[in-house]
Input
Amino acid sequence: MKKAKLLLSFFMVSSLVVAQSRVDFGAFAGTSHYLGDINKERLFYAPSFAAGAFSRIILNPRYALKASVTRVPIYGNDLDFPNDFQQSRGENFRAIITDIGFQFEFNFLKYKYSAVKRVYSPYVSAGTGLAMVNNQNGFSTELIIPFGAGVKVFITKRLSGAVLWEFRKTFTDNLDGMPGISDSQFTSKLHNNDWYYIFGVNLSYRINYYKDLCPAYD
Output
């Protein structure tokens, strides 16, 4: 009985938070990239087109909660790298990741629409999520830690845009279908577990908009 009451209270509080908060929905488009056994350190290697959708609960001008789903293709080929070990190994892979993430966002500036000036804010985000990976070894679901940074800007009262760069730390060495390298000379401790990241832009449309500005400027 106590657990039922606690669960009911949780849902009531959650509903109240959502009801009292602004909500926006949006879409992301950009590139996806991979770090792992084939590519250990080259940034923006082998860009692939990534796209997704998200919903955000704006708690206040500083804080927000975001849920997202993103299609993330990644690719790697040993022959793209000049060292003799990779040239002789000659491995390559392609994978499609369905990325589901839940992140907390913090805006460094108060991100609140104004009719008299351009409003923008740098921000950071972090959270948790799942990566559903489809590669040459089959299908798997992996835990991820998403984190990143970007800059948001109001375009109109309801429409916002952002440039963002987000990383995904994984707990698997098998995104590329290659669980480890036997030659320790070419093994990076940083990339014992594979990483991937996305870079691009998003657009969002805000609903539940409350007129909390001075009426003279709204």
About this structure: The chain has a mean pLDDT of 85. The two ends are 48 Å apart (CA to CA).
